[in-house]
């Protein structure tokens, strides 16, 4: 369709008798029509028409997001930054992947400048702790734990406050670019990281990013699990996949919207989660203070 034809089609939304059919045709055109809908919104003085256009734009963006999430899943979900960016784009469709990439790269460079090949693994972790938690002052958002912003990576980087998962994701993305053997661990109620070197000289240990990179032993993790009255499970100690991490981030976002009594958004994020998982009762990050 030409630009003129698209604008003519959008103008037909003013006719309530044919508006439903016009909406179907517009949705069939996909996200490419969004700039035209935004232009019509700016030109309209009718609040009802503006709301109709806003709903159409959201539906088109949501359909596009679902498709991109399927592509990410089918590719193996290996690119963690892209997966978290896709989650960001639910609330912030204009979120810039390259801006996120540059922010992580800056953190990597600052840590790289302080690392030395001969450093012990715990000293390497202390370097990352210094850069992330002391220099850049990333930390736990204890005052507003259930805010959806805590699941938005670009907002966590801007505000310096996040939940256990997003703080771990930033840490993990930096560590991966430094070729450090650090991975995510799906603990109940708390997401942590593990350092698991191929060398048998260094025992695996764990990193609690919600507590400024506190180093934990396996015994500490065992005690934590016991306090929750749970039976030991291998997944509480072993690395999880990037797909697992994005699933958990989506579950956290569902919980956030439920806490805010926004069921429509919780339902939509649940549809995104359904693309990635068939699990029914997986872990989430619940407020440790509750």
Please describe what this structure looks like:
With 290 residues, this protein is α+β, with helices and mostly antiparallel strands. It has two domains: 3-74; 80-276, no CATH class. It is built from twelve helices and six strands. The protein has helices at 3-11, 19-29, 34-43, 47-74, 80-91, 97-112, 121-135, 153-159, 164-177, 218-227, 242-259, 263-276, and strands at 139-140, 161-162, 182-187, 190-195, 205-208, 214-216. The strands form two sheets. A four-stranded antiparallel sheet has the order 3-4-5-6. Strands 1-2 form a two-stranded parallel ribbon. A hairpin with a 2-residue loop joins strand 3 and strand 4 (190-195). Helix 3 runs antiparallel to helix 4 (47-74), helix 4 (47-74) packs parallel to helix 12 (263-276) and helix 11 runs antiparallel to helix 12. It is elongated and about 75 Å long. The model has no long low-confidence stretch (mean pLDDT 90).
């Amino acid at each position: 369709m030409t630009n003129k034809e698209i604008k003519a089609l959008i103008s037909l939304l003013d006719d309530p008798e044919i508006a439903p059919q016009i909406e179907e045709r517009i949705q069939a055109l996909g996200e490419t029509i969004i700039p035209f809908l935004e232009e019509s919104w700016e030109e309209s003085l009718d609040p009802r028409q503006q709301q109709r256009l806003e709903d159409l734009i959201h539906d088109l963006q949501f359909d596009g997001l679902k498709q991109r999430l399927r592509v990410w899943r089918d590719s193996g979900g290996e690119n963690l930054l892209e997966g978290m960016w896709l989650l960001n784009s639910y609330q912030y469709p204009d979120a810039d992947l390259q801006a996120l990439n540059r922010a992580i790269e800056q953190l990597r460079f600052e840590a790289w400048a302080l690392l030395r090949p001969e450093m012990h693994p715990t000293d390497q972790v202390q370097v990352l702790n210094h850069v992330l938690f002391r220099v850049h002052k990333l930390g736990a958002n204890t005052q507003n734990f259930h805010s959806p912003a805590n699941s938005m990576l670009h907002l966590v980087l801007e505000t310096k406050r996040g939940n256990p998962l997003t703080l771990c994701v930033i840490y993990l993305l930096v560590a991966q670019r430094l070729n450090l053997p650090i991975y995510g661990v799906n603990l109940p109620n708390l997401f942590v990281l593990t350092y698991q070197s191929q060398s048998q000289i260094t025992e695996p240990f764990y990193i609690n990013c919600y507590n400024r990179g506190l180093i934990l032993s396996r015994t500490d993790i065992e005690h934590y699990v016991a306090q929750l009255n749970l039976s030991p499970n291998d997944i509480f100690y072993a690395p999880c996949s990037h797909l697992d991490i994005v699933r958990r981030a989506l579950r956290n976002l569902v919980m956030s919207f439920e806490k805010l009594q926004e069921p429509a958004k919780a339902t939509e994020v649940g549809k995104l989660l359904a693309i990635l998982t068939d699990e029914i009762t997986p872990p989430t990050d619940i407020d440790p203070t509750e």
